[in-house]
Each structure stands twice: as structure tokens, then as C-alpha cells.
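The protein record quoted in full:
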Amino acid sequence: LGKLWLVLVMLLRVAVVVLAGYPLYQDEQERFICNTLQPGCSNVCYDLFSPVSHLRFWLLQTLAVLLPQAAFSMYVVHQAAVHLVGMQCGLQGCQAKKGSSSPRDQPELCGSAVVSRSGGGAAKLSILNFSGAYTVQLVCRTLLEAAFAALQYFLFGFFVPERFSCYHPPCTSTVDCYISRPTEKSI
């Protein structure tokens, strides 16, 4: 259930960024209008207002939050493969070499041993415990989300103002710039 929830949340996050964010922010710099004719002033003011593209920031956030889950998934697959090779070698009655943990090393591990079923019973089924690794990736994801929320606040704030005043060279005086659709962007 947790895996399905993560996939659903990530798909919904990407859908919101692509379907709602892209149309809203695609013309952001073109619609950032400053009341000056000074060459370069509008570009400098826009760079001060938005040092990073919102869309790129949110896509980077989504990728960063997915990295711990991807690492955890690769770890689980690797450990399960090692465990399966070990179980198969145990059934075939061979000795596993230390340091070999890849399924490709299976012929080397088990050689040409014949499956022995002299015990009459099935092999014991062991269950791998990944709770520690899951907790680590969950803490990493939570810390990344918190870090990106703090970065969002320091870079952009949580509300988009209707007017942005800037005074920075090459602007010769204080210039008022107007942002398109500030209420919609704040929401």
C-alpha cells in the first residue's frame, strides 16, 4: 500500500506541476512588466524577483524526493537477489563463496550440485527485514521535503506580490514591476 501511495503522490505532484504550473508560469518573464525603458533593467529586476524558475525548482524537488525511494528499491532488489541465491545454494547443498553476491555468480556458487530432497520437507521460508532501511529512506525523504520547503520560502516566499519594486544597476531609479496573475500564483 505504501508503494502505491508513493507512486500516486508523485504522479499527482508531477501532474500538478505540468498541468497547472506550466501554463501559469510559462510566460512569467514575458509578462513581468516594469515601468521603465532602461535597457536591461527589466531582466535584472526579474532575476531579483525570481532567481530560479519555479517549474525547474519543483521538478528538482520531485526528483530529489524520489532518490531515497529509488535507492531503497535498489537495495531491496539486491538483498532479495542475494537471499534467493543463498537459498537456492542451500537447497542444492553447496558452500557459498564469501564476497559473491550476484545472481550471475550462481553457477560458481552452486557448481553442478544436484538438488537434494532427502529431507522430505520444504526449506524454511525466511523473511527479510527491511524496516531499518525503510526508516532511513523515510527520514531522508522527510528531511528533503522540509529542506525544499524552507528553500521555497527563502527563494520565493509563499505569496506572490502584485508589485515588485527594485533598484539595482542598470536601473537608474526605483522601478515598479508588475507580476501577471499574482493571486492565482499564490493559490
Q: What stands out?
A: The two ends are 30 Å apart (CA to CA). The chain has a mean pLDDT of 81. The domain at 1-81+131-186 is CATH 1.20.1440.80 (de novo design (two linked rop proteins)). The first strand starts at residue 33 and ends at 34.
